[in-house]
Amino acid sequence: MEVVDLTGTHDHYQVSVQSDAFQGMNRIQQHKHVMNVFDAELKTGEVHALTIKTSLKQG
């Protein structure tokens, strides 16, 4: 997993996650899975923008 603050304002992030937990999930399901982790911060506005990149861990 990698988290990058895109703007330096601590509210716009890019999250890249590679996990075998995504097995059998389509891309939308993978993104929802990651967004659940940030649910509280997204609801309060602490995280304003979240760019998500997901991939299935190989090997």
- How many strands, which pairing sense, and closed or not: the largest β-sheet? 3 strands, mixed
* Estimated helix fraction: 25-40%
CATH class: Alpha Beta
List the strand order in the largest sheet: 1-2-3
Q: Element order, helices and strands?
A: EEHHE
Q: State the CATH architecture.
A: 2-Layer Sandwich
The mean pLDDT is 95
Number of helices: 2
* Structural class based on helices, strands and sheet pairing: alpha+beta
Number of strands: 3
> Could you tell me how far the N terminus lies from the C terminus, measured between alpha carbons in angstroms?
16 Å
* Rg, nearest Å: 12 Å
Short description:
It is built from two helices and three strands. It is of the alpha+beta class and 59 residues long.
Write a concise keyword list for the protein shown above.
GMP Synthetase, Chain A, domain 3; alpha+beta; 29% helix; 3 strands; 59 residues
Textual characterization of the structure:
The chain has helices spanning 27-37, 39-44; strands at 2-5, 12-19, 49-56. With 59 residues, it is of the alpha+beta class. The protein has one domain: BolA-like (GMP Synthetase, Chain A, domain 3, 2-Layer Sandwich), CATH 3.30.300. A three-stranded mixed β-sheet has the order 1-2-3, with helices on one face. The longest helix has 11 residues, at 27-37. The mean pLDDT is 95.
Describe how the helices and strands are arranged.
Elements: E1 2-5, E2 12-19, H1 27-37, H2 39-44, E3 49-56
Parallel strand pairs: 2-3
Antiparallel strand pairs: 1-2
